[in-house]
Every structure is written in C-alpha cells, then in structure tokens.
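Summarise this fold before class:
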Amino acid sequence: MSRRLVALAAVASMGLTLAACSAGSDPEASGSNDAAAGDLGSAAIQFGWLPNVENGAIIAAVEEGYYEDLGLDVEILPGGPEVAVDAQIVSGGALVGLMTSESLANAVLGGAPLVGVAAVYQYSSNAIVSLAEDGIEDPMQLEGATIGLSANDRTTLPFLEWLGLDMSTVSTVPVDGSPTPLVSGEVDAIVSPVGNVPVVLAAQGIDTTVIPVAEHGYNRWSSILTVRRDSLEDPEQLAQIKAIIEGTKLGVEDLLEDPAAVGEITYDVYGEQLGLELASQVEGAAVWADLIRRGQERSGGALLEVTESGLAETQALFENILGVDLDAHDLFDLSVAEGVL
C-alpha cells in the first residue's frame, strides 16, 4: 500500500480531483494457471488516469488479494494528464497498461511494440451529456451547439461529422471533466464517461440526458490490458500477464455482483488522497458494471475476452470514423487469455 500511495501523492499534488467487497470467486476454483501456486514476483499496472471506480475491478483485485493468491504482487501506478501509458509499458515501467482501442492503435502506428491481451470495457463509456431541460436527445440536435471536449475526446468531432452533422455550425470548448461548464451554460453539451458527469450531477439533483455514442456507431473500447509484444516471449512475464488477466476477471466478477462494495473499496483506498466522494464512487460503480455487461452482450464472449465479432466492430470504427489504417487483429493477441478467461 505504501508504495502505491507514495506514487499517488505525487500525482495528487498537482491539485487534480475526480468527480468521476468481495463477492468474487475463489481463484483456485477459477481455472488458474499452473504458475499460480508459485511466486510470480511483482508487476505494475499503469492506469490512464487517477484511480477511481472506473478501475474499481483492478483496485478490488488488489485489495481482496486476488493477484496475491495467484502468486503475484501487483502495484497500481496512477495516471494523469502528464502520464503516457504507452511509454510506461515500452520503457518497462509497467508490465501492463490500460489503453483505449484508439490510443493503442495510435501507439502502434507510431512504432510502439504493443499488443492488447484482454479488454475490460468493450462498450464505449463515452456519452454526449446535456441538461434534460434542453431537450437534446439525438446527436443531430447538436447543430449550432457548443460542445465541451477534453483532449482525449477530440475524435468525437469526426464521429459527429460521420453522422452527418454540419460541423461548421458547431463550436467546441476545452474542458477537464468537470460538469461546471455544462451547469453554467458555457456549453450546451459535454462529452463525458457515463460514470462521471451524469453521476455527479444526479447527486446534486440535476437531471441530464445521456446519449451513449456506442449506440450511434462509435464504440471505442477502454481499459484494454496492454503489454509489450516481447513480454509474451518471456515465460516469467507471460505467467505474470496471465495472472493479471485472471485476477482482473475476479475483480470484474466482484464489480458485477456487488458494485456498491467495489465503490466503497475504491473510496476507502483513494478517497481521502484524491478527494473522491463516496456517493459518486458507489453510484458510479453500478454504471461501470452495466458497461461491462453491455460489452459482453455485444461481443458474445466471456468477461474480458476479445472476440472476432468485437474485432470486426473495432475494424469498422477504424475505417469509418477514426481513419486508422490498421488491421484490428494486429492489435491483439487472442491466445494469451486462452485457458484463463
């Protein structure tokens, strides 16, 4: 815990805040790999942002000892605006990093030797959020609107253009994830994870309209467990990666079975350091759990499993919206999770 919190304090000192249990299975009964009985050493998982309930499954897996039971000591490395997940993996600073399908594709196009081995969220967490009183219920109603976008959400613009929206009528304002620009009227809509702005405003009694972008053809995955390709050629690192996949699945099962408990675990570990609110973590956990269920239903696979149908949808995203010249199959190694998920 101390190593994790020391790293966390360094990021938290930047003044960043987030608005953003165990009913799990017995690891020994879940088909763990043969190396689970031995000591796999230690490994780090790099988050893309500061710890919060979005990554509650991994936080729960650490706190409930699921990785430890599999023989692995896991350290969580907090992310943030100045943390490049791909660089951390490539440099060896983290064995596994959490990336989106878009960021993974861009990193590979840039020459990074990375590959995804499993994906927690296969249903996009992003949504177009507006105040309910404004009556925006379809993306095409954003004509003439001002939209709040974070640096990571700029690809929402080609998505809206692909839908047929006249982008010459749309203005954008940079935002940092806070709902304030929406409430103040600075923007008409804001792009946000469904577990962030809508949950925070609901706690304040403010009704919102949420348009999931996945329902309109923009299904960008997130929390893809990403590793260096050569790590899969090292027997010790491969065993560690398999343990991380298996332990994460156990954490996901906890999140699905009792979201509130995982929200409480997240708050207990990180709430004081990051100024998290208990209510937003508990209520947000149910939202993130629902995204996992939707992704599983959409792909037709097991939890975290990357399927052929999921890859086909990702390929369509690359070709139709993002303009990424890559074969989605080249971004994943489906063999790593075999026998684990």
Q: What stands out?
A: Residues 1-37 have pLDDT under 50 and may be disordered.
